[in-house]
């Protein structure tokens, strides 16, 4: 029986195509000096048997990337509930940014149903990409590469973006960069602050992740802490839902806004994991505390906030404010410790990046700014539109990876029907720091893919 043909987005699986990748990069490095020349591209990618100089030592970006040669990269993001595309160039200029949100669907059904999310992505992906190109006043032929999220995320949703990226890459013979969604949340900070050098720390807080890492280099992260259950964004979402808030802009902003009207000291929620002297997080217990407080106040989520009595509105605002204070206090406490750990490992660290959807919250930013200042570090927080899921972070991370030769050749014009895409729904970013290992989490988490860091290290080992 014939085995299915596997067409991988394999920039990090260099073990089985290392020579090809090196060959590809060598030729593409010439392309860097003739940008936007798709004919050149086409010629190169078809000549798979060209002679290959031994150039593995020259794979570093500094030798082959020339900043005078502007790369223009389309980034596509569909890992969760936003369909996003953007065009960014290697000078760090955002030429366009388009996001189509599924918040309406979320509000209607109270959560993400993967099949529905997939359909919603499929309905808008062509338009979102076209709008991104139009706003940038470019066509696909002007692009240097396409970058796309390959994980982590919902498999059905990732597929929509990856198929679109491959179609464009195949038609216009463009290299393709598979991007790690959480790496992109961190790396976009280097677009916002061009002085941000490795190593730095990053706190990545979103709907599905709560990670604190030491970013040693592109593709190399050390995990200082993670969540043992829910992420902070999930706690914001559920609290907003149970408080009967308008979820059309997602739960986080709704809680943030309501919390401004409440008394943050009024409900005595306990701070999670106080007794754990590590940098891990837990939000499941706080979620339960919020639910119990809502029940004890007899708040009916079926009555929208705007229709509730003023007394009821006050009770809801107090719960929102108290929840937010404790949820963020938990971040503050763990960040304090993580900074100490990180400075012991890498005393040269100067920055803490805070990114991911929850980092767009002004209260979160203000509190973390104090933590960072106390420790003589600098906070780098991308603007809110670059903290929530977006195509810019994918395009920029694509550019950074491309510069290091981490990309794949264009897919064939006609993909075989049994083609299996390299989607990585559960793809860790980092290797765990021994001191921060969470037994509870390690037992629960099946690591389906080797982490980005392990793959990067393996590829470097092979090319050295
Ligand atoms: O990074 P992101 O856009 O998507 C994921 O990768 O999950 O993060 C989405 C999360 C949601 O849980 C949303 O409620 C939360 O970020 N969020 C906020 C705010 N804006 C978005 N949480 C608190 N305050 C906000 N202003
Ligand atoms: Zn995200």
Topology:
Layout: H1 18-31, H2 38-46, H3 61-64, E1 72-77, E2 82-89, E3 94-101, H4 103-109, H5 114-135, E4 145-151, H6 155-172, E5 176-180, H7 181-192, E6 200-205, E7 210-217, E8 220-225, H8 232-242, H9 251-259, H10 284-296, H11 310-345, E9 351-355, H12 362-374, E10 378-380, H13 384-387, H14 391-403, E11 431-432, H15 439-444, H16 452-463
Helix pairs in contact: 1-2, 5-6, 7-14, 8-9, 8-10, 8-11, 9-11, 10-11, 11-12
The protein binds 5'-O-[(R)-(carboxyoxy)(hydroxy)phosphoryl]adenosine and zinc ion.
Bound molecules: 5'-O-[(R)-(carboxyoxy)(hydroxy)phosphoryl]adenosine, zinc ion
Number of distinct beta strands: 11
**Shape, principal axes of CA atoms:** globular
Report the major sheet: 6 strands, mixed
Stretches with pLDDT under 50, minimum 5 residues: 1-67
Distance between the termini: 38 Å
Please list the strands of the largest sheet in the order they lie side by side.
10-9-6-7-8-11
Average pLDDT level: 85
Question: What's the helix-strand series?
Answer: HHHEEEHHEHEHEEEHHHHEHEHHEHH
As a whole number of angstroms, the C-alpha radius of gyration is: 23 Å
User: What structural category do the secondary elements indicate?
Assistant: alpha/beta
Tally of DSSP helical segments: 16
Helix content: 40-55%
């Amino acid at each position: 029986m014939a085995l299915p043909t596997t067409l991988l987005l394999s920039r990090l699986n260099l073990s089985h195509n290392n020579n090809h990748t090196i060959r590809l990069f060598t030729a593409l490095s010439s392309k860097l000096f003739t940008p936007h020349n798709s004919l050149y591209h086409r010629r190169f990618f078809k000549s798979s048997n060209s002679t290959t100089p031994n150039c593995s030592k020259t794979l570093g970006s500094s030798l082959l990337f020339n900043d005078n040669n502007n790369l223009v990269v389309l980034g596509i993001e569909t890992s969760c509930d936003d369909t996003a595309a953007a065009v960014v160039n290697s000078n760090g200029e955002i030429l366009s940014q388009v996001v189509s949100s599924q918040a309406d669907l979320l509000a209607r059904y109270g959560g993400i149903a993967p099949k529905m999310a997939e359909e919603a992505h499929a309905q808008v992906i062509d338009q979102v990409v076209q709008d991104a190109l139009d706003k940038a006043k470019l066509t696909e032929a002007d692009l240097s590469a396409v970058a796309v999220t390959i994980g982590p995320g919902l498999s059905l949703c990732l597929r929509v973006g990856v198929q679109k990226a491959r179609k464009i890459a195949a038609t216009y013979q463009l290299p393709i960069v598979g991007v790690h969604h959480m790496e992109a949340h961190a790396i976009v900070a280097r677009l916002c602050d061009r002085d941000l050098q490795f190593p730095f720390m990053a706190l990545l807080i979103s709907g599905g992740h709560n990670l604190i890492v030491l970013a040693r280099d592109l593709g190399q992260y050390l995990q200082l802490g993670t969540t043992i259950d829910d992420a902070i964004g999930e706690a914001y979402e559920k609290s907003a839902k149970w408080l009967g808030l308008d979820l059309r802009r997602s739960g986080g902003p709704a809680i943030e806004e309501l919390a401004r009207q409440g008394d943050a000291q009024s409900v005595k929620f306990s701070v999670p994991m106080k007794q754990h002297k590590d940098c891990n997080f837990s939000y499941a217990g706080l979620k339960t505390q919020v639910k119990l407080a809502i029940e004890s106040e007899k708040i009916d989520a079926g009555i929208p906030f705007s229709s509730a009595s003023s007394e009821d509105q006050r009770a809801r605002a107090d719960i929102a404010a108290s929840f937010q204070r404790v949820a963020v206090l938990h971040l503050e406490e763990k960040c304090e410790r993580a900074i100490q750990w990180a400075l012991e490992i890498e005393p040269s660290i100067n920055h803490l990046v805070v990114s991911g959807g929850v980092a767009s919250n002004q209260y979160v930013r203000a509190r973390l700014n104090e933590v960072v200042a106390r420790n003589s570090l600098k906070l780098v927080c991308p603007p809110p539109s670059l903290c929530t899921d977006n195509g810019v972070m994918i395009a920029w991370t694509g550019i950074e990876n491309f510069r290091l030769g981490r990309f794949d050749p264009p897919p064939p014009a006609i993909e075989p029907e049994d083609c299996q895409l390299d989607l990585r729904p559960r793809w860790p970013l980092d290797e765990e720091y021994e001191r921060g290992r969470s037994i509870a989490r390690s037992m629960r988490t099946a690591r389906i893919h080797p982490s980005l860091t392990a793959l990067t290290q393996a590829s470097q080992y092979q090319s050295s």
